[in-house]
Amino acid sequence: MKISSAKFELSVPDYLKPVELFFKKTDGTKESIANLSGLAPSSDGKYNISYTFSGNALATLTSIDGGLSYGLESNELYLTLIVNYSEVFDETTLAIKGTVDTAGPVITYTLYEDKDMNGTKSGDEDEFEITVPFDNIKFNVEYKKDIN
Length: 148
Hints:
about 150 residues, mainly beta, four-stranded antiparallel β-sheet, three-stranded antiparallel β-sheet
C-alpha cells in the first residue's frame, strides 16, 4: 500500500482568521505549505481550510506483519491565526484572553495497492479512501482591543 494523497480539512469560526499553514519537517524546522491570508469566511460564518498533500508529503505508511496491517505516522501541522473581535468575548478589559473549542480537522487519505512495487499507481491497482477524524481543538486566544 502507498499513499496517493492526503486531504486536510478544518473549519474555524470567522473570528479566528487563518493566515498560514505549516508542517514540521523531519529536521524539526517548519515549512510553509499554504498562505491562507486571502481566504474569506463562508456564508455559515466559518473559514474552511482545505489542502491536499501529494504522496507521502504529510504522512508515511509502514507495513507491519508482512502487509497484514499498516502504521500511519503523520508530520505535525501548525496553523497561524489572527484573532478578531467577536461577541463571544464578553469581557470589557483591553486584553481579552479565552479558549475557543472547535471541531478538529479531518484528513482523508487516498491509498493504492502498489502491486508492481514501482511507487506509481497504475490502472489495475485498487484505490482506497480512509478518513481520519480528530477530536476537538482548543485554541488559547488573546484579543487586544484597539483604543485609537
